[in-house]
Automatic annotation (TrEMBL):
Organism expressing this protein natively: Chryseobacterium gleum ATCC 35910
Keywords: Signal
Signal sequence bounds: 1-18
Domain annotation BON: ranges: 26-88, 105-150
Name of the protein described by the UniProt record: BON domain-containing protein
One Pfam family named in its UniProt record: BON
Length: 162
């Protein structure tokens, strides 16, 4: 019986000794490992405190951000990852150049028709010929008659009559 109690006591002592001898990974070691992983993204950084990795910075897309978090969680000794990072907004699409739907010869004819009215501008806006400017009621009527006589089809008359 004494032998059994002694063996049990020895087993308990060895168990406690084994648990207390388990090596805890220091934050400095975790910081080194985490920094090595995060250097693949120059816009991100990581700081380890009490076994928790704090990820910050900007990622190009959600997939690269998720992959980085998974890599940090895979480090032995990291308890959790606090994500304080963001995903960059997608770059705006390049504007599409479109050719004007208005024939330059038609535009020139209209400019010649309104040359006596210096406040009137002839422009192509959103692919349509557009007249803009400030004119009197009499001038507006003369301009409309002149442009309609050219038989150019549809145009935007955005003249402001004073």
């Amino acid at each position: 019986m004494k032998k059994t109690i002694a063996m049990a006591a020895l087993a308990v002592a060895v168990s406690f000794g084994a648990i207390s001898c388990k090596k805890k990974v220091s934050d400095a070691d975790l910081q080194t490992q985490a920094t090595t992983i995060v250097t693949s993204n120059p816009n991100a950084s990581v700081e380890v405190k009490e076994g928790v990795a704090h990820l910050s910075g900007t990622f190009a897309d959600q997939q690269s951000k998720d992959a980085m978090i998974a890599k940090l969680k895979a480090i032995n000794g990291v308890k959790d990852v606090m994500d304080m990072s963001t995903v960059a907004a997608p770059a705006p699409a390049a504007p599409v150049e479109t050719a004007s739907a208005v024939d330059p010869a038609v535009q020139k004819k209209v400019q010649d028709a309104v040359k006596d009215f210096p406040s009137v501008k002839v422009e192509v806006v959103n692919g349509q010929l557009t007249l803009t400017g400030n004119v009197s009621a009499l001038q507006a009527r003369k301009i409309k008659e002149s442009v309609d006589a050219l038989k150019i089809g549809k145009y935007n008359n955005n003249l402001i009559v004073k």
